[in-house]
Write a structure and sequence with these properties.
Mean pLDDT: 97
Largest sheet: 7 strands, mixed
Structural class: alpha/beta
Strand content: 15-25%
Helix content: 25-40%
Shape: globular
Order of helices and strands: EHEEEEHEHEHEHEHEHEHEHE
Bound molecules: NADP nicotinamide-adenine-dinucleotide phosphate
Number of strands: 13
Length: 320
């Protein structure tokens, strides 16, 4: 587990943007389990954050000064400001966002990387469709809560797995899942057997470990297992792989990982579709907003203790 000693607050002067750069005032930071992986000194899809470097973070900001032709002061953008109050960022990595279309924090959640992960994981990798039984772990969290609602929109039957009775009530009553399984108080394998009598067609895995094994043991024929994440393993010394993997053979099933950024070129289309569902009230998102950049160390830990609902966001500053 990361701890408070891993972090240092440093004051530095804000510098002028160079050609092609934009100076941002950071407004909202997206708090993501991936941050834990970026802290590991090992090969991954991005280089690790080095000791002494600014912690990498996605977020939403306001343009203060621009030397990039696409942006001017007052624009709102999403990008990668890092855990800092102001950031000079390559303008080519930023996307302009519209605060009239949706409140700014939604661009860190349902209309940002989180929502895209749910959308492409569920539809491209999971191929979820009407009549499928779709099981989603970390169902009350940022990605899981959106994935569950998208599966409902597609006409699937949805089973969410979450920790504790309050989260399960939220998953069922607020998010509209058909069933919620409390992995802290129930035997997940047995509950899946009861609630998925014809087996699981799509398992959207956010957690890995024992829950992945329980789902593999309950697959339907030709099931799709979407490896979105494995948060139960992110702080583990010995990562535990699935022991039930032979069920993939028995059920002629497919298990596939994906990285949301591979779908970057298609974000616009997905965001428009999701924005329409938001407007129509078919899709809801909850942002759990913590005020103050100094609360980053303790807020990151809440992802692993589960002390949040929906998308965990830090409000660094209010828009001008
Ligand atoms: P999140 O679900 O909002 O937060 C993490 C949740 O995981 C916690 O609230 C907690 O919920 C659950 N959890 C934590 N430790 C657990 C454990 N040991 N066993 C079971 N559940 C545990 O986070 P998120 O941002 O939506 O991310 C969800 C997953 O998607 C993560 O694995 C993340 O790495 C992955 N992801 C992948 C991509 C990609 O491109 N592939 C992109 C974004 C995110 P409970 O209280 O219910 O336990």
């Amino acid at each position: 587990m990361p701890n408070a000693q891993n972090w240092r607050v440093v004051d530095e002067p804000v510098h002028e943007p160079a050609d092609g750069e934009v100076l941002l005032k950071t407004l909202y930071l997206s708090i993501d389990p991936a941050m834990r992986g970026w802290m590991d000194d090992r090969p991954s899809y991005l280089p690790p954050v080095g000791t002494g470097e600014v912690m990498r973070a996605l977020g939403v900001g306001e343009v203060i000064a621009s030397k990039h032709r696409n942006f001017e002061p007052g624009d709102y953008v999403s990008g990668m400001p890092g855990v800092q109050t102001f950031a000079c960022v390559d303008g080519n990595t930023l996307t302009k966002i519209d605060p009239e279309l949706a409140p700014l924090p939604k661009y860190t959640s349902v209309l940002g990387m989180t929502g895209m992960t749910a959308y492409f994981g569920l539809f491209e990798i999971g191929e979820a469709k009407s009549g499928d039984t779709v099981v989603i772990s970390a169902a009350s969290g940022a990605v899981g809560s959106v994935a569950g609602q998208l599966a409902k929109i597609a006409g699937s039957r949805t089973v969410g797995i979450a920790g504790g009775p309050e989260k399960c009530a939220y998953v069922r009553d607020e998010l509209g899942f058909d069933v919620a399984i409390d992995y802290r108080n129930e035997n997940v394998y047995a509950a899946l057997r009861t609630h998925c009598p014809n087996g699981i067609n799509v398992y959207f895995d956010n957690v890995g470990g024992e829950i992945l094994d329980a789902c593999l043991g309950n697959l339907a024929m030709h099931a799709r297992v979407v490896i979105c994440g494995a948060i139960s393993q992110y702080n583990a010394e010995d990562v535990r792989g699935p022991s039930n993997y032979m069920m993939l053979l028995i059920k002629r099933a497919r298990m596939e990982g994906f990285l949301v950024s591979d779908y970057y070129a298609e974000y616009g289309k997905a965001a428009r579709e999701m924005a329409a569902w938001l407007r129509e009230g078919k899709l809801h998102s909850h942002e759990d907003i913590v005020e103050g950049i100094d609360r980053f160390p303790e807020t990151l830990l809440r992802l692993f203790t589960g002390e949040h609902l929906g998308k965990l966001v830090i409000e660094v500053a209010k828009p001008s």
